[in-house]
């Protein structure tokens, strides 16, 4: 490299350093503004989160009561629809026979005691039907999915409240 080339390179370096210094101040200011804005937003979100959490903590019992009863109408519709099903009526009739047998056994035990005979009547044995387990399992799976969706809605409601600009 010649002296002339070295001088040109040094001048170019000096110009670039001057330009870098000129831009570094606005860049540092912009960076500081961004950090301040992020801190302010985090503080705002924390404050709104605390407000939401306080409100939710103060109203959870009412909300839980409403949630508990939110399925009352659906339960009534379910029982009505279920009662109209022929297979359900047949199942009820089948289970009623078990109850009738139980009443006969209880009355026979009472009669034997009344006349002083030793008790020879067996105790009623109840057999659970597998259909109930299958139905309950299907209901619980679907209910858990609906519950999970509700949990997501609650989380979104909190996020919407915290994120809302006033």
Give a description of the structure.
The chain has four helices and no strands. It has about 170 residues and is an all-alpha fold. The longest helix has about 70 residues, at about 5-70. About 0% of the residues are buried.
Briefly, what is this?
This protein has 166 residues and is mostly helical. It has helices spanning 3-69, 72-84, 86-114, 130-163. The longest helix has 67 residues, at 3-69.
The shape, in one word, is: rod-shaped
The share of residues in extended strands comes to: under 5%
Alpha plus pi helix count: 4
End-to-end Cα distance, whole Å, is 64 Å
Mean pLDDT figure: 89
Unreliable segments of 5+ consecutive residues = none
Q: What's the story with the biggest beta sheet?
A: none
Order of H and E elements: HHHH
Q: Helix content range of the residues, please?
A: over 70%
Q: Radius of gyration, rounded?
A: 38 Å
Structural class estimated from helices and strands: mainly alpha
Number of strands: 0
* Quaternary state of the chains: single chain
Top keywords for this entry?
4 helices; mainly alpha; single chain; 166 residues; 86% helix
SSE blueprint and pairings:
Layout: H1 3-69, H2 72-84, H3 86-114, H4 130-163
Helix pairs in contact: 1-4
């Amino acid at each position: 490299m010649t002296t002339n080339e070295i001088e040109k390179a040094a001048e170019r370096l000096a110009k670039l350093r001057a330009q870098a210094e000129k831009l570094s101040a606005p860049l540092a200011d912009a960076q500081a503004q961004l950090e301040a804005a992020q801190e302010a937003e985090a503080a705002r979100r924390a404050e709104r989160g605390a407000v939401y959490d306080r409100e939710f903590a103060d109203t959870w019992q009412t909300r839980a009561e409403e949630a508990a009863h939110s399925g009352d109408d659906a339960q009534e519709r379910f029982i009505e629809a279920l009662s109209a099903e022929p297979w359900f009526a047949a199942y009820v009739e089948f289970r009623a026979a078990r109850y009738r047998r139980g009443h006969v056994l209880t009355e026979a035990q009472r009669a034997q005691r009344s006349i002083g005979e030793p008790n020879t009547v067996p105790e009623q044995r109840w057999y659970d039907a597998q259909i109930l387990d299958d139905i309950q399992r299907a209901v619980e799976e679907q209910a858990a999915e609906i519950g999970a969706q509700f949990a997501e809605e609650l989380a979104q409601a909190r996020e919407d409240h915290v994120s809302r600009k006033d």
